[in-house]
Amino acid sequence: MLFQRNSFMTAMLRGRLLSGLIRLSSSCVVPSPAPSSSVNSPDVDSDGTSDANKDLAVDETWIPSNNKHYVKKKKITRPRFAMLLSFHGSNYYGMQFNSHGPAIENILFDAFIKIGLLPEEKIRAARYYLDYQRASRTDRGVSALRQVVSLRITKGFNIDGINEFLPDDIRVLGIKPVDMIFDAQTWCTARTYSYIMPTYALRYFDKSWNDCHKYRIDSLSVLKASQIFEMFRGTHHFHNYTEKIDIWDQRSQRKINDTEVSNPFLMGEVEMIEFKLTGQSFMLHQIRRMIGMVIAIMRGKATFSMLQETLEHPMMPAPTAPALGLLLEKGLLIAITSLTFSSMETYLDRKMRRHSFKGNDLSSKMRQVGKWDNTEDLEKLLKGDEDDSSKEK
Predict the structure, then answer these.
(1) Where is the binding site for substrate, in residues?
(2) Which residue, of 13, 199, 215, 377, is most buried by count of CB atoms within 10 Å of its CB?
(3) Which residues contribute to the annotated binding site?
(4) Domain Pseudouridine synthase I TruA alpha/beta spans what residues (predicted)?
C-alpha cells in the first residue's frame, strides 16, 4: 500500500514538472537568424564562426524587451571618493538634506546634477544612489571648516567645475580616492568643535552696563570659565542637553574627550574667546546647550551644583546658546587611503593649508563664522537676562 502511494505521488510530480517545462519552452521563443543571401555559403566564415555556432549566438537586438533572461546590462563601476567641504551655515537649515528649507546637501546635490554626477530623477534618493555618508551632521546655522563626506561618483570631474555651481559660502576644497570600504561616518572616531563668542557674554549680569566694545575679561574669569567647561569631561548622560531623549535612553550617554578655553583675543574692537571640545559624537543642540550652561553660570544665573544636576536629574533642561559661533573644526578619521598620503588626517591638513584655512588662525575662522558685533543672535543671547531682571522688579 505504501509502495503504491509513493508511485502515485512520483507520477503526479513528474506530470507537473513536464507541464511546467512545456509552458517554459513555449514562452521562451528564440527567433531564427536572418537568412543568408548566398545559397551555397561556406561552413566557416572569415571570422572563424561556423554556421552551427551562429545559430547559438543570438543577436540581442532580435530579443523582445520583455525577455529579461537575455538582456545584458553593462555595470558601471563608480570608485569611492572622500570630499572635503567648508561652508558658512548661517543661511542654511543644517547639513542634512531636507524639504523644509535650503540645506548644504540640497545645494551640493543640485550642483552634482548640473555637472552630470547625479541623475535628476535620483535627487530624492541621492544618499543611496551615491552611497553618501557625512562625517558629522551640523545643525541649522552651524558652520564647518573641515567637513568630510564619502561618496561614489564617476571619474572625469574637477573641483572648479563643482564650485562653479555652488554659492560663495559653500566650497569644495579637495577630492581624494579612498578604499571602497571607507565610510566617513563610521570611520570617524571623534569630532572637534569650537565655539567663538565675545568675552562680554561671560560678564556678570548688570543691566546698567552696556559698553560691550570696551569690556576686557580678566584672567580669573577665564580660569573660572575653563573650570566650568572641564566639568563636562568624561562620560555623562546629556539628556538635558538635547531634545526628546530621557535619562534612561542609552543614546544620551556621550563621552567628552577634551575641553579647552583659549586666551582672549581681539577681533577689531571686540574681545573674543574660543571654547573647543572633542568628543566621540554629539546630539542635537548638545554643544550649544553646554556653552549656554557655561554662560549662565558666568553671568550668575546658575551655579556649579546646577550643572551637575543637569547631568543627573531626569528633567532639568539647560539653556541654549545661539548657533552663530559654533564651528565644526574637523573629524578624526582613521581611514588609511590607497594613494599619496598615509592617512586622511594628513591629507586634510595639507588641503587646508593650501586654501589658507589654518586651525590655529582665529581670524580666518572668524571670517568663516561671521561677526558677533550688533547681531540679532547676540541680542537673543542676552535677552533672557533682561527678561529675568524685569520679572524680579
Answers:
(1) 193
(2) 199
(3) 193
(4) 230-328
